[in-house]
Protein backbone atom coordinates (compact mmCIF):
# COMPACT_ATOMS: atom_id res chain seq x y z
CA UNK A 1 0.00 0.00 0.00
CA UNK A 2 2.55 2.60 1.10
CA UNK A 3 5.48 3.50 -1.16
CA UNK A 4 7.92 0.64 -0.78
CA UNK A 5 10.94 2.99 -0.94
CA UNK A 6 10.04 4.52 2.42
CA UNK A 7 10.79 2.95 5.76
CA UNK A 8 7.65 2.59 7.84
CA UNK A 9 8.33 4.34 11.17
CA UNK A 10 7.65 2.55 14.45
CA UNK A 11 5.93 5.64 15.88
CA UNK A 12 2.30 5.93 14.69
CA UNK A 13 2.40 9.75 14.87
CA UNK A 14 5.50 9.81 12.68
CA UNK A 15 3.81 7.43 10.22
CA UNK A 16 0.73 9.66 10.01
CA UNK A 17 2.90 12.73 9.48
CA UNK A 18 4.86 10.89 6.80
CA UNK A 19 1.59 10.30 4.93
CA UNK A 20 -0.20 13.62 5.46
CA UNK A 21 2.31 15.94 7.15
CA UNK A 22 2.42 18.33 4.23
CA UNK A 23 0.00 21.27 4.16
CA UNK A 24 -0.95 20.54 0.55
CA UNK A 25 -1.86 16.92 1.28
CA UNK A 26 -4.10 17.94 4.16
CA UNK A 27 -5.88 20.48 1.94
CA UNK A 28 -6.29 17.91 -0.85
CA UNK A 29 -7.82 15.47 1.65
CA UNK A 30 -10.07 18.26 2.97
CA UNK A 31 -11.40 18.89 -0.52
CA UNK A 32 -11.87 15.20 -1.35
CA UNK A 33 -13.82 14.57 1.89
CA UNK A 34 -16.90 15.97 0.14
CA UNK A 35 -16.54 13.62 -2.82
CA UNK A 36 -14.80 12.98 -6.12
CA UNK A 37 -13.05 15.93 -7.72
CA UNK A 38 -11.44 16.60 -11.08
CA UNK A 39 -7.86 17.82 -11.29
CA UNK A 40 -9.02 21.29 -12.35
CA UNK A 41 -11.38 21.52 -9.36
CA UNK A 42 -8.52 20.68 -6.99
CA UNK A 43 -6.30 23.29 -8.69
CA UNK A 44 -8.94 25.94 -7.98
CA UNK A 45 -9.78 24.90 -4.42
CA UNK A 46 -6.25 24.33 -3.12
CA UNK A 47 -5.23 27.98 -3.26
CA UNK A 48 -1.59 28.63 -4.05
CA UNK A 49 -0.58 25.14 -5.18
CA UNK A 50 1.18 24.74 -8.51
CA UNK A 51 0.13 22.17 -11.10
CA UNK A 52 3.47 20.36 -10.69
CA UNK A 53 3.16 20.13 -6.89
CA UNK A 54 -0.50 19.03 -7.07
CA UNK A 55 0.39 16.30 -9.57
CA UNK A 56 3.28 15.12 -7.42
CA UNK A 57 1.19 14.98 -4.24
CA UNK A 58 -1.71 13.23 -5.95
CA UNK A 59 0.65 10.56 -7.29
CA UNK A 60 2.23 10.09 -3.88
CA UNK A 61 -1.14 9.86 -2.16
CA UNK A 62 -2.33 7.35 -4.74
CA UNK A 63 0.80 5.23 -4.18
CA UNK A 64 0.16 5.39 -0.41
CA UNK A 65 -3.41 4.16 -0.90
CA UNK A 66 -5.12 7.36 0.25
CA UNK A 67 -6.91 8.09 -3.02
CA UNK A 68 -7.72 6.58 -6.38
CA UNK A 69 -7.26 8.14 -9.78
CA UNK A 70 -9.66 7.39 -12.62
CA UNK A 71 -8.84 8.42 -16.18
CA UNK A 72 -11.68 8.62 -18.69
CA UNK A 73 -10.73 7.92 -22.33
CA UNK A 74 -11.95 11.24 -23.69
CA UNK A 75 -10.35 14.11 -25.55
CA UNK A 76 -9.19 16.00 -23.62
CA UNK A 77 -8.71 13.30 -20.95
CA UNK A 78 -10.80 13.68 -17.83
CA UNK A 79 -9.17 12.58 -14.57
CA UNK A 80 -11.02 12.24 -11.28
CA UNK A 81 -9.70 11.65 -7.77
CA UNK A 82 -11.57 9.97 -4.93
CA UNK A 83 -10.52 9.13 -1.39
CA UNK A 84 -10.16 5.44 -0.66
CA UNK A 85 -11.61 3.93 2.50
CA UNK A 86 -8.17 4.46 4.07
CA UNK A 87 -8.14 8.10 2.97
CA UNK A 88 -11.65 8.67 4.24
CA UNK A 89 -10.67 7.13 7.59
CA UNK A 90 -8.72 10.38 8.18
CA UNK A 91 -12.05 12.20 8.68
CA UNK A 92 -11.86 12.18 12.51
CA UNK A 93 -8.39 13.76 12.30
CA UNK A 94 -9.66 16.40 9.88
CA UNK A 95 -12.71 17.08 12.08
CA UNK A 96 -10.41 17.52 15.09
CA UNK A 97 -8.28 19.98 13.12
CA UNK A 98 -11.39 21.99 12.21
CA UNK A 99 -12.54 22.08 15.85
CA UNK A 100 -9.09 23.07 17.09
CA UNK A 101 -8.70 25.75 14.41
CA UNK A 102 -12.10 27.24 15.21
CA UNK A 103 -11.29 27.29 18.93
CA UNK A 104 -7.94 28.93 18.31
CA UNK A 105 -9.53 31.55 16.05
CA UNK A 106 -12.08 32.35 18.77
CA UNK A 107 -9.26 32.70 21.31
CA UNK A 108 -7.42 35.12 19.01
CA UNK A 109 -10.59 37.15 18.43
CA UNK A 110 -11.14 37.46 22.20
CA UNK A 111 -7.64 38.89 22.59
CA UNK A 112 -8.35 41.71 20.10
Automatic annotation (TrEMBL):
PROSITE patterns: HTH_HXLR. Keywords: DNA-binding, Transcription, Transcription regulation. The keyword Plastid does not apply. The keyword Transmembrane does not apply. InterPro entries: ArsR-like_HTH (IPR011991), HTH_HxlR (IPR002577), WH-like_DNA-bd_sf (IPR036388), WH_DNA-bd_sf (IPR036390). Residues 11-109 form the HTH hxlR-type domain. Pfam families: HxlR. GO terms for molecular function: DNA binding. This is HTH hxlR-type domain-containing protein. It comes from Hungatella hathewayi WAL-18680. The lineage of its organism: Bacteria, Bacillati, Bacillota, Clostridia, Lachnospirales.
